[in-house]
Amino acid sequence: MNASLEKTLLHLTGKTNFSEVSVAQLEGLVAAHPYFAPAQLLLAAKLKNTQHPQALAQSTKTALYFTNPFWLQLQLSKDAHDEQVTSVAPVTAKISSLLSDQLASFKKPLEADAKLDIEAKQEKLYTTDYFASQGIKIDLDAIPQDKLVSQMRKFTDWLKQMKPADTNIDLGVSSKQEKDVIQSAESSNEQREVVTESMAEVLGKQGQTDKAIQLYIKLSFLNPEKTAYFAARIQQLKGI
Fold first, then answer.
1. Which distant-in-sequence residues (6+ apart) come within 8 Å of 74 by Cβ?
2. In terms of domain of life, where is this protein from (predicted)?
3. For the segment 117-135, what is each residue's pLDDT rounded down to a tens digit?
């Protein structure tokens, strides 16, 4: 019997095992409270455990009192549930044992003369002997030294002296200089407004009065000593 049924049986009958409760007692409880779902469940479980002829009928009736038939089936199938829990227990114990062994090995102090073996970097075969890396076995010293053999020897020696290319090429430019160049390029791409008295006069002659007035206002801020002069030009444009 699972924990849920055991608690329900204890609260309703004061007993902790179905063997201590008779079918008649549970039937009386159901008769007194026909719409009480826990009582129906206890009776169905009792009938199923004792292989009573009415077990199937009571289980079908009990299903009407619960919205989750899968949960109900789990409560009534105590044997399968107990078997599943039993099978999981050894696996859990084995995992705990492995973790304990790993923890003990981790906490084990290192010896004073312990060394960390690091595999030496293996040199690529083509940098030592190109022809050997291609599956060609040849002894250049054992054959006549003609022009082709000399070229092969020079090519092999050249490969041996090769070094990996450095991807971080130093261009002799600091990060600050790079930043200044970027800012200079960005500022040169920006469209700058021409704020001059000549431009204001041109705008006024072209009939763009509003733009000319805005330009005179900016000029008055840039040249406070000529504020009165620019104010007069603004009044002239407005026709005042």
1. 81
2. Bacteria
3. 665 555 555 455 555 665 5
Query: Residue 149: its pLDDT value, please?
Result: 58
Reference 216, options 228, 231, 194; nearest CA is 231
The contacts of residue 215 (CB under 8 Å, 6+ apart) are 195, 199, 200, 203
Burial profile 100-124: b = 16 or more Cβ within 10 angstroms, e = fewer: eeeeeeeeeeeeeeeeeeeeeeeee
Q: Where are the domains of the chain?
A: 3-80, 125-160, 197-238
> Which amino acid is located at 51 in the chain?
Q
Q: What is the pLDDT averaged over residues 139-161?
A: 62
Query: How far apart, in Å, are the Cα atoms of 197 and each of 30, 119, 219, 224?
Result: 104, 78, 7, 14
